[in-house]
Amino acid sequence: MTPAEATAPVWRWGAPAAPAFVMLHSLGLDGGSFRWLAEALLSRANVQVIAPDLRGHGSARSQPGEITLPGMAADVVNLLQSLQIDRAHLLGTSMGASVARLAAARDPARWRSVTLVAGGPSAVPALAERGEPALQGGMAAVVDATLQRWFSAASIAADDTFVRYARACLLRMEPAAWAAAWRALATYPAPGPLPGEVPGLCVAGELDVSATPQVVEALRADAAVPEPVALVAGAPHQLTMSDASDVADLLLSHWRP
Q1: Euclidean distance between CA atoms 111 and 196, whole angstroms
Q2: Residue 111 belongs to what domain range?
Q3: E-strand spans in the chain?
Q4: C-alpha–C-alpha distance, residues 199 and 225, integer Å
């Protein structure tokens, strides 16, 4: 599926009248990275998946100064207003988890649930420098190290389809946007606890080396999610791609479409 115009480029799967899951991607990817999870959900339930390209990613071209997490959160809320979707489940992975928390705080009544996957509890100032190698050497300079943080060695060696997709996303991204997104992740305002009326769930990959289960536990505490962290056995950082079936089962066991 290709992006369709709304308030931002957006990828959609499923029937427009079906219950909606809104999904927010990781830094360096785009809404199409939820293809595997969308297909797994649609094979199990009557749902629709809506996954926008966040600012600076995919087809959502932005000036570096416009690439902020609060701006991304505002875009998500505006997107649902534009699509006339009053209520939806919300999921964010990695950077998208931080954007999801900000979107939940911005419009609590919009969300039936919030699922935070492989995210951290707060801004990390040291991440501001992570974009520098791409500014110096282009995106090719950061691809291998990024894929090693995201996926298992076996998936990379096999060049699985989701690894190829992630590599292509990275190589398409503008180095200035990559660097700006890292600065945004290093400086965004503390979202605070999820609104009390919004049920929450935090999900970690057992083998995630970027957002370890301990980091996701800190996220759970900071977001005041009562339920324990759901651990996906053997999963790396980009588990919504590599372990989509397990994540789909987990979502449908917690949230009624």
Answers
A1: 12
A2: 10-123+189-254
A3: 10-13, 20-24, 48-52, 88-93, 111-117, 200-205, 230-232
A4: 8
Query: Per the structure block, which two tokens stand in for 230?
Result: 């759901």
Whether the pLDDT of residue 11 is over 70: the answer is: yes
pTM comes to 0.96
- Write the CB contacts of 13 (distance below 8 Å, at least 6 apart in sequence): 1, 35, 38, 39, 42, 48, 49
Distance of CA 84 to the CA centre of its chain: 22
Within-domain flag for 129 = no
Amino acid symbol at 29? L
- Segment 223-242, tens digit of pLDDT: 999 999 999 999 999 999 99
Number of domains comprising the chain: 1
Q: What is the CATH number of the domain that holds 107?
A: 3.40.50.1820
Contact 79, 7 (CB under 8 A): yes
Residues ≥6 apart with Cβ < 8 Å to 70:
102, 188, 189
Report the Cα–Cα distance between both ends of the chain, in Å, rounded.
22
C-alpha neighbours within 13 Å on the C-beta side of residue 106: 20
Which of 151, 37, 32, 25 minimizes the C-alpha distance to 97? 25
